[in-house]
């Protein structure tokens, strides 16, 4: 881990007002889930940096790939950022920018990949929401209809469709959830979501039987012949969705199938508190949202909500210690494998516990991100994109202004 991280220069939170000076107001002395105790000065710094980085991002996007429709590195991701900024700040210009970018995305759909982040369902879902907010209901319904046309092929797993988040069933599932969250009601009928969860459960049971791992984990999933553990391609990301209430999994199967599978991932923990990228990989190297503690933590916190006990919260807190020590990455400031994505783990812990230590740590990672480009980090392949680049950092800084409402984009429910 040390070879991939930069030294954390910040003093940790000690509970005193002096420690959090400039970050927390007087309410910050109370450990409770109240309206976020951030000072107006710090929120102003966040907003100013959002404005500054948006200008740099828009200039940089002039040379971006015009054919990349995706949420991960392409135009749909930029549209999602502006849609989020509209929700946080309520400025009409952001919604217009979202429309501009998602319109570009709709012109270059893959016509083969179905997920929110790497395929066509993301652009269609984002476009449906943008049109909905603009009052253009006919266009919103058209995008929604095209999104739902994919449903049958996803349930049936056509083309050897995997189950993971970036390229598989769960990635399409998120698109439907996104629609319902953004529309504020059950725009997508619950049976659509339930049928996908049924297919994911059946796939996991089948592979577990095939590999004879039922006693270890009743559900097993692979991607490119590897048993990935993390949020992007692996078990933790899939189990996080299967534990969500209202998705039709039901209490019996959450206890019989999902819980022992979550417990299996829990047992893969390294002595450090971090998690391997794949089952059987003994290298304790990666502290990324995509591979490692910053993604697994969301599974653990959801397990704590659903099942209680069994040390899920304790292991999540240990993940937080790993991220605080090793989470400022040489790879940069992005969401998938950077400081902004890692900081969402602190926000998740803050929402789960009310302990201001975690909000303080998120603020310190934000201060690191506000010194964007000054740490000698690697320049990503798509330096202005949502999941690799600057757009994701902007998304996080905006989210931090309302930490109790924050959610890791395209993942956290």
Describe the structure.
This protein is mainly alpha-helical and 413 residues long. Helix content is 52%, strand content 0%. The chain is built from 15 helices and no strands. α11 packs parallel to α13 and α14 packs antiparallel against α15 (390-400). The protein starts with 39 loop residues before the first helix and ends in a 13-residue tail after the last helix.
Protein topology:
Layout: H1 40-60, H2 75-89, H3 92-106, H4 121-133, H5 137-148, H6 151-156, H7 169-183, H8 190-210, H9 235-242, H10 251-267, H11 293-307, H12 312-326, H13 339-353, H14 356-370, H15 390-400
Helix pairs in contact: 1-15, 2-3, 2-4, 2-15, 3-4, 4-5, 4-7, 7-8, 9-10, 9-11, 10-11, 11-12, 11-13, 12-13, 13-14, 13-15, 14-15
List keywords for this structure.
mainly alpha; single chain; 6hp_glycosidase-like_sf; LANC-like; zinc; EC 2.5.1.18; LanC-like_prot_euk; 413 residues
Provide a compact summary of the structure.
With 413 residues, this protein is an all-alpha fold. The chain has 15 helices and no strands. Belongs to the LanC-like protein family.
Number of helices: 15
Silhouette = globular
Query: Which radius of gyration do the C-alpha atoms yield?
Result: 20 Å
Global structural class: mainly alpha
Low-confidence stretches: 28-33
Largest sheet: none
The CA-CA distance between the termini, in Å, is 29 Å
């Amino acid at each position: 881990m040390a070879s991939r991280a930069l030294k954390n220069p910040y003093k940790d939170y000690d509970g005193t007002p002096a420690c959090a000076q400039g970050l927390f107001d007087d309410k910050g002395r109370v450990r409770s889930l109240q309206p976020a105790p951030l000072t107006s000065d710090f929120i102003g710094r966040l907003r100013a940096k959002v404005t500054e980085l948006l200008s740099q991002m828009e200039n940089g996007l002039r040379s971006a790939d015009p054919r990349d429709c995706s949420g991960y590195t392409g135009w749909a991701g930029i549209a999602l950022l502006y849609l989020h900024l509209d929700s946080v700040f309520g400025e009409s210009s952001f919604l217009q920018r979202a429309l501009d970018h998602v319109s570009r995305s709709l012109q270059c759909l893959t016509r083969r990949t179905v997920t929110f982040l790497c395929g066509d369902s993301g652009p269609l879902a984002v476009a449906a929401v943008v049109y909905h907010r603009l009052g253009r209901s006919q266009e919103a319904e058209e995008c929604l209809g095209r999104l739902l046309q994919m449903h049958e092929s996803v349930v049936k797993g056509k083309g050897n469709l995997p189950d993971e988040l970036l390229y598989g069933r769960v990635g399409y599932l998120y698109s439907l959830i996104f629609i319902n969250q953004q529309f504020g009601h059950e725009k997508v009928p619950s049976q659509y979501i339930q049928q996908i969860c049924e297919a994911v459960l059946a796939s996991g049971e089948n592979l577990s039987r095939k590999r004879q791992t039922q006693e270890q984990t009743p559900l097993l999933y692979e991607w490119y012949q590897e048993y990935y553990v993390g949020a992007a391609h692996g078990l933790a990301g899939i189990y996080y969705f299967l534990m969500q209430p209202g998705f039709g999994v039901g209490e019996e199967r959450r206890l019989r199938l999902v819980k022992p599978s979550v417990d299996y991932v829990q047992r893969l923990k390294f002595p450090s508190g971090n998690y391997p990228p794949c089952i059987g990989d003994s290298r304790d190297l990666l502290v990324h949202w995509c591979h490692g503690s910053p993604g697994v933590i969301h599974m653990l916190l959801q397990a704590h909500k659903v099942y209680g006990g069994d040390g899920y919260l304790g292991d999540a807190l240990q993940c937080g210690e790993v991220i605080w020590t090793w989470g400022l990455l040489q790879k940069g400031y992005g969401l998938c494998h950077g400081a902004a994505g890692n900081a969402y783990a602190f926000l998740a812990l803050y929402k789960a516990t009310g302990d201001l230590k975690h909000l303080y740590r998120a603020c310190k990672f934000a201060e690191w991100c506000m010194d964007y480009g000054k740490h000698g980090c690697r320049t990503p392949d798509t330096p202005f994109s949502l999941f690799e680049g600057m757009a994701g950092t902007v998304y996080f800084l905006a989210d931090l202004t309302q930490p109790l409402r924050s959610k890791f984009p395209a993942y956290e429910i």
